Amino acid sequence: MSSSSPVAGGGVQLDETDRLLLAHLGRDGRASYAEIGLLANLSATAVRRRIDRLRARGVVRGFTVVLDPELLGWQTEAFVEVYCRERTAPEEILASLRQFPEVVAAWTVTGDPDALVHLRAADTRHLEAVIERIRKEPGVQRSRSSVVLSRLIG
């Protein structure tokens, strides 16, 4: 019996070693293959082969920088409902939003808005400028914003 199992949604089989490598990458995407290999009891070459295979299969889609909004002085927080023109694909929304470092997270949602976007900014002037830039993106028809007053949980 194999120790592989499908990930949520079907499709790709991952074994325990793949999961371990992904967990290490998730904690530190800049870790070297040698560092990950020490933690996973594999050679750097074996780690590279496995990660290359995971990338080829689409499990790992890329590597990115995650900014700490508070260290950047981005104390103002908002949730923005984005309403798109007809036939705007989620991929188009993603491509538009990826260019904004102020976007902390974004989701497609049910209901009237097409996407819900979590923003962090230095102040309301910065927030307004970002929202205006998002509203000018192709495919975006309008938006509705809610500024966070205080965080209750999380």
Mean pLDDT over the full residue set? 90
| Structural Rg | 19 Å
SS-derived structural category = alpha+beta
Number of strands: 6
Question: Can you characterise this structure?
Answer:
With 154 residues, the chain is of the alpha+beta class. The protein has two domains: 16-57, Orthogonal Bundle (Arc Repressor Mutant, subunit A); 69-148, Alpha-Beta Plaits (2-Layer Sandwich), CATH 3.30.70. It has five helices and six strands, in the order ββαααβαββαβ. It has helices at residues 16-27, 33-40, 44-56, 90-98, 124-135, and strands at 5-7, 10-14, 76-84, 103-108, 115-121, 140-147. Strands 4-5-3-6 form a four-stranded antiparallel β-sheet. The protein has a two-stranded antiparallel ribbon with strand order 1-2.
Characteristic key phrases:
154 residues; alpha+beta; Arc Repressor Mutant, subunit A; 4-stranded antiparallel beta sheet; 35% helix; 25% strand; disordered N terminus
